[in-house]
Specification:
By secondary structure, the chain is mainly β. The chain has one helix and 18 strands. It has one helix spanning 81-85, and strands at residues 8-9, 18-30, 34-45, 49-61, 67-77, 86-88, 100-101, 109-123, 126-144, 151-173, 176-191, 210-219, 224-233, 244-256, 259-266, 272-273, 285-286, 288-295. Strand 8 (109-123) and strand 9 form a beta hairpin.
Length: 297
């Protein structure tokens, strides 16, 4: 399919090459106590040239039960044709009076991620994990909107996200498992000096601050399983999406080792609710029930 009068790539066809590979090793520094994992992804692409994405993780087993770990890693999102070659003619969208074009000098978006975690087996049947994270972003994509010329994609944003996650798993009985998790996320975006972007900072409100998940998994017999999942997602103020609760259930029958027949119900607490997108064009998620057949080999 080629270009249209509304959306186009310039040039319409282009061949690009990508070469990539990974290296990874795990080193035992102290037997049964201290381990170090090191690795990197190496890539060369025609948009941004050579890219490297190293990472390291150090884990310390304090006693027989608790473990502390920390990690630092670097990641990139290399440019795509949307970033470099995309084009919307003037007058198509009210917010883009002069059109929108990819930036020929668009660079890779970059991330340095820091993580610190703690895992402990409190009892034989109860385990708890706590993790905190801080992500530092640079060269994020921004639509630069000068006057009388098309807006272009550039790397005019920086940002940070930080938060924490706590999870717990409890084996209530040999046939009943419970899992709970909570995540907190905070996002901050900043325009670089000289950037003409006035819209992207609103994306801080596109991710929920709070999320909660509760799951119950039961083996009612050696052939019948019953799962129930309840989740809470905080509101998205930038998209005017309210907070919501949702529940999914699954009843499965395993007549033999490789075959599973299941009935699944999703979003059963209401008829419909929004999860993303701004009104009035967004589509709301409806409740649903469907059957599923799985054959493993």
């Amino acid at each position: 399919m080629g270009n249209t009068p509304i959306l186009a790539f310039r040039p319409p066809k282009l061949t690009r090459q990508v070469c990539s590979g990974c290296l990874q090793d795990e080193i035992t520094l102290v037997e049964n106590r201290l381990k170090l994992a090191l690795g990197t992804k190496l890539e060369h692409n025609d948009f941004s040239g050579f890219e490297y994405q190293p990472g390291g993780r150090l884990s310390l087993r304090l006693t027989d039960r608790p473990t502390v770990w920390g990690a630092i890693s670097r990641a990139v999102r290399t440019p795509s044709r949307i970033d470099r070659d995309f084009f919307i003619p003037p007058g198509i969208a009210p917010a883009l009076t002069n059109g929108l074009a990819g930036g020929p000098g668009f660079l890779s978006e970059k991330l340095i991620a820091y993580e610190l975690g703690y895992r402990v087996q409190l009892r034989d049947r109860l385990s708890v994990s706590l993790a905190g994270f801080y992500n530092d972003y640079d060269d994020l994509r921004s639509p630069e909107v000068p006057t009388n010329v098309p807006a272009t994609f550039a790397n005019g944003l920086t940002g940070e996200t930080y938060g924490a996650e706590i999870t717990a798993a409890f084996q209530a009985t040999p046939w009943w498992r419970l899992h709970a998790g909570y995540t907190y996320l905070q996002m901050q975006l900043h325009t670089k000096p000289g950037s003409a972007d006035t819209t992207s900072r609103g994306q801080e409100g596109d991710s929920p601050h709070h999320q909660l998940l509760l799951r119950s998994s039961m083996d009612l017999s050696d052939k019948i399983q019953w799962d129930t999942t309840v989740r809470y997602v905080d509101n998205l103020p930038h998209q005017f999406v309210p907070a919501y609760w949702a529940m999914d259930v699954r009843l499965a029958w395993l007549p033999c080792k490789n075959l599973e027949l299941a009935v699944v119900g999703q979003n059963l607490l209401d008829n419909r609710h929004p999860e993303f997108g701004t009104p009035p064009s967004r589509k709301e998620i409806q409740h649903s029930i469907y059957g599923k057949v799985t054959w493993r080999f």
